[in-house]
Amino acid sequence: MNLVREVKHFHQYVRHSQAYGSAEHDSLTHQDLYRVIFNDRVQSAFPNVEAILRLFLSMMVANCSGAMQYSINNQSSIFYAEAFAFFSAILAIPSICPNLNPNIYIFTDNLALVHSLQEVKLNLPILLDIYRTLILLKKNKFHISIFWIKSHSDSFGNNFVDHLAKEATKKYFPSQHFHPAQNLKHIILKSSIKEFSLIYNASNHRKRILKFFPNISSIFTARKFFFSNPLAGLILSGHGPIRYHTSKFDSTTSSVCRFCDQVPESIDHLIFTCPSRDFTRYMAFMEIESISGRFPSSHCDFIFNEFTWNILIKFISNFKIV
Ligand SMILES: [Zn+2]
């Protein structure tokens, strides 16, 4: 029988056998069609349709709407990719193992996937479909055992397949598709930081902090060690108990530097130029240079890492102003 006739035949078969006109019939997916072949045991009547559906459902490419229920994108977890591969594998079982009562062993190195299925924690749509398909296969007398094996990420073959899967993921799957729940926190954090950066950069207040962090979003990755010291607020904001500010509130206080008595006392004067601490500053800046490879000449030179920042904090603490 030629292929076109077989497809037409199958179409008629499904129309008549699957409660034609009912709600279920209207919402039949490609997977449902594939299941019809096995539930009704009509593989021998529609061998080409079965083969085509199997290939179609196993393909990791979606080139028309509704072709695939699942897609893997750049944000997808390894877990999701493994679940997807697992699902593709069990869909192929009826065609690979046509004999009834066969023992089938599936090996995966993803322990989380094994636990999800064992404990029926079906918190992703694909897990639910895996579970349904496993039940269907069980009803059709397939004895399936799932085993966890130790990760084999160092093996050449496995690395090669991982590489190909990664390439395919980049090439074929747009990012607007389904995100696994465990990635949502990261996605929300990333877009919140982006939103904050836009608002911050568009505001018209003075932005001293940009001298330290030219890209304001980088402040979030550094926040753990930059804000843990009381002096950090003074250095980053430029505001605090220094004479340039206190003289404005107290007319008896001079704004001139209490350490060198030469110029107005600002935090930048203390950091970079106050001659009263020339030697200590030179030693501190040399220490920073030994770490970052750069003798500090601007604010962002102190932000190289936690150690360079702490050297600056230690140097400013010598003035004993906080
Ligand atoms: Zn001074």
Q: What do these coordinates show?
A:
The protein is mainly α. The protein has 3 domains: 1-59; 69-173, Nucleotidyltransferase, domain 5 (2-Layer Sandwich), CATH 3.30.420; 209-317, no CATH class. Helices cover 57% and strands 4% of the residues. The protein has 16 helices and 2 strands. It has helices at 3-17, 23-26, 30-39, 47-58, 78-96, 111-118, 125-139, 156-172, 181-202, 209-212, 219-226, 230-237, 243-249, 267-273, 278-292, 306-317; strands at 103-108, 143-148. It has a two-stranded parallel ribbon. The chain is elongated and about 100 Å long. The model is unreliable at 60-69 and 172-177 (pLDDT under 50). Bound molecules: zinc ion.
| Main beta-sheet strand count, sense and barrel state | 2 strands, parallel
* Radius of gyration from CA coordinates: 33 Å
Small molecules bound in the structure, each named once: zinc ion
Sheet-strand content, in percent, reads under 5%
User: What's the overall average pLDDT, rounded?
Assistant: 79
Element order, helices and strands? Answer: HHHHHEHHEHHHHHHHHH
Structure class = mainly alpha
Low-confidence stretches: 60-69, 172-177
N-to-C terminal Cα separation, in Å?
A: 91 Å
* Principal-axes shape call: elongated
Overall strand count: 2
Strand order of the largest sheet: 1-2
Helix-residue proportion: 55-70%
Q: Total helix count?
A: 16
Number of domains: 3
